[in-house]
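Quick question about two entries, pasted in order.
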Amino acid sequence: MTGYWTYRKSKHDFRRREEAKTKGQYAKRPKSLNEFHGYLFDLDGTVYSGDTLLPGVLSTLNRLREQNKSLLFVTNTTIRTVEEVRMRLEQLGVVCSESEIMTASCAAGMYFQEYEPGARVLMIGEQAMKRELERFDVETTEDASGATHVLVGMDRQFTYDRLTQGMKALRNGALLIAANPDPFCPLDDGAIPDTWSLVRALETASLRQTFTVIGKPSAYYAEKVFQKLDIAPEECLMVGDRIETDIRFGNDHGMYSALVLTGADSRKDIVLTGIEPDYVLASLRDILADW
């Protein structure tokens, strides 16, 4: 399950947190679930499933807000803008601001604005990702010969022609950027290919490697999250249903992590991956147990 997480690290992969962990700066002490100042929540499989809000979500989020806790919804989606994520949550009864949401597309826009301001990006993805790039004044192009980067997100209209254009850009020297490392997207009736499936196709066709990954569990995504929260990592709890992204994200960047059993992964996956969460929750409702 860890094979897809092998990619070439760029100078922007922020090794500071890894170095701090090695030096023992992130030694954890046992904490009750009500002790944290910041709570980070994955969305699909954690807060909702399809178009259904999961059990205990509203009561948990409302209680955390009553206690003046900071909340942040962190998702690897590239098929919804931050505004669309907020609207979807609102339709399900969860009221939040756009400042409380981080998506992989939003982080990609930040990345290009911050580190590659002159980039010309050939984008493989859907309109939501394009709109987020435009929000950060990132130039996109359909010219494979002039592209400096190929950014890949989930694309449900992916074609052989698009694969060919991406391959040409990469073989011409463009750098391959993955918006997230998710191999598939779970649905109520199964799953469909996600970003990493398309990334692998491009790597195979072009004989080039991925330069960097933007979404969870990357260090860049963590940097942007902590800038938003302005809370020390050890005062944050990352809650999600995917071990390889959510739990790894929490563990790798000094947070506490909680696997919630309402989505993709189960207790047996902890053994299979060797990645240990600090807590295992039947649902978000379990966070209220210590109150």
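Here is the second entry:
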Amino acid sequence: MNAGTPTPLRCAGRTVAHYTTRPGLSPGHAPRPFLHPVTTLAGRVVTETLPEDHPHHLGAGVAVADVDGRNFWGGRTFVRGRGPVALDDHGVQRHDGFKLCDPDGFVEELSWTAGGELLFREHRTVAAALLTDSAWALDLTFSLANASGRELSIGSPATNGRPGAAYGGFFWRAPKEAAAPVVFGAEADGEEAVHGSAADWAALAGDGWTLVFAGATAATRADPWFVRAAEYPGVGSSLASAERLVVPAGETLVRRVVTVVADGRLDRAGAAALVRRAVAS
């Protein structure tokens, strides 16, 4: 699958992730860079890639279901009145190079293209920071600059007629285990309550691990969370929830998500304390 050697990401002297820049995937997967495997400090893997239930899910990264009618998520496209349809409409996030690449983080330039057209130029930063002896933070910022010369709009299956499916933006696919992970937020419990909420953070707790996803800017915190647990374990942000998000020509969209990666099962107070520390660092 990988057309090159993955770039390791280290924290406190330990490799906690690998970043694949040029995956050798078919166009239907919407090829894009991604982090996998991501691990806790104790070595437990907390990402999944190419799972049988959704083979276009690729670890942790950025994926958008609809950029002006182009699919940068992978898999089928939801079409109003028709449902999920297999279309030849997929885009590619091309890794153009690293501006900086240190053991604990990197700065990357990417091009989002579809149908021979450049839509976005992206500036992505990823950094790892130690929080405690059992938790670290993955800090990911993506800046999408509209390079098309015209107005672009970002949509989702929800804006295209599928209620509850406002995925698109930052997305983390966790491993599927025998039991569904526990979901909780700053003030809510359970998948149904946290999904679709614009809470400061959302947590997914599995067998010996907890992931806490936090919006680190006001704009990011305004995006509702997309949460799945019973069907498959995954959490992401929703750039286009109730309506399409318009990006004028020459304008830039910026979001920053900080993910706490912890060994063990955190409670609400413990998750909140680590989020405060991670976002402030």
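Reply: The chain is about 10% helix and 45% strand. The helical segments are 191-194, 218-222, 268-280. Hope that helps.
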